[in-house]
Amino acid sequence: MNDTADKPLLLVAACALLDTDNRILLAQRPEGKAMAGLWEFPGGKVEAGETPEDTLVRELFEELGIVTEKPCLAPLSFASHAYDDFHLLMPLYVCRKYQGMPVPREGQKLKWVRASALRDYPMPPADLPLVPIIQDLLPPFRGS
Ligand SMILES: Nc1nc2c([nH]c(=O)n2[C@H]2C[C@H](O)[C@@H](COP(=O)(O)OP(=O)(O)OP(=O)(O)O)O2)c(=O)[nH]1
Question: Any idea where the Nudix hydrolase domain is (predicted)?
């Protein structure tokens, strides 16, 4: 059976934003939204007329106040997950180059997290297969 037959396909672009210590920025979904309290990668729905890269440049500014450019977004992987109401297709990019320090502009909590600690932050189910991919990308932390 085709479990996506009667569900819309939702395209969302997401970004693993890294700091100079290779920590990853997670954002906590605010109260009142679906999946409130779970930690996600910054990003959002790809609007009509946008590429996923356009979306991320826009969302990173709107949500976090940082400025980046499309060549600074490197494709890493994607999530494909059947939620009850829609099927999520979510390309995940990595971004190391941006201007400004992320600040929470939409009431969300932000946290810089080491790759080895990602499992300590409950995430939407679609994101779980992305965790080992990010952990493979980043060298283990050897500092104190
Ligand atoms: N940005 C982001 N969205 C994710 C992740 N994982 C995941 O399942 N999603 C889902 C949650 C939402 O259903 C959708 C993102 O949509 P969105 O951020 O534009 O919208 P939203 O539900 O927060 O709220 P709204 O803007 O429609 O009010 O993708 C993730 O890591 N990052």
Answer: 8-136
